[in-house]
Design a protein that fits this description.
This protein has helices at 3-11, 74-85, 134-142; strands spanning 17-22, 33-45, 51-62, 95-100, 108-117, 121-127. It is of the alpha/beta class. Strands 1-6-5-4-3-2 form a 6-stranded mixed sheet. It is globular.
Amino acid sequence: MKTTEFISTLSAAPGNRLIFAGLDGRAVHSGYHLTELKAAQFETVDCGGQTNRWLETIVQLWVPTDADDEYMTAAKFLKIFEKVRGMIPLNLDAEIRVEYGDENFFPAIYHVRSVTHDQTTTCVLLEPPRTTCKARDRRVATFPTTDSCCAPPTEVCCSA
């Protein structure tokens, strides 16, 4: 999900409690803090030798040991986001990610699968990250019958 879509969805119900939950239904504990916003830029080379560039907005959550029983509201999240947006170059077209970890969530940077809301609650559904082989993905898109890993002749894959 793009950052702009995420922010727009939160803006639609600013008074709602903001709950982040995994695919299994477990939620980030109440009393969490939005501890960091990151404007991340990635520059990579995949195993097919192709360079890749993309941006992400990473929201880091943390639950202190003395956390209260209240969930942050969407309005409070948006207020923090806007303040930080004036300090670092958060790109609204970047993918939004949520960094979190505890006894219910393996520490990772999660994808936002969806954001839904009802009268009192906005729920952000988090999806664990997955790995892929970009060179294979490009080859399968071009030649659907192949499942080759690397795309010669610029192969730089460790499996070579």
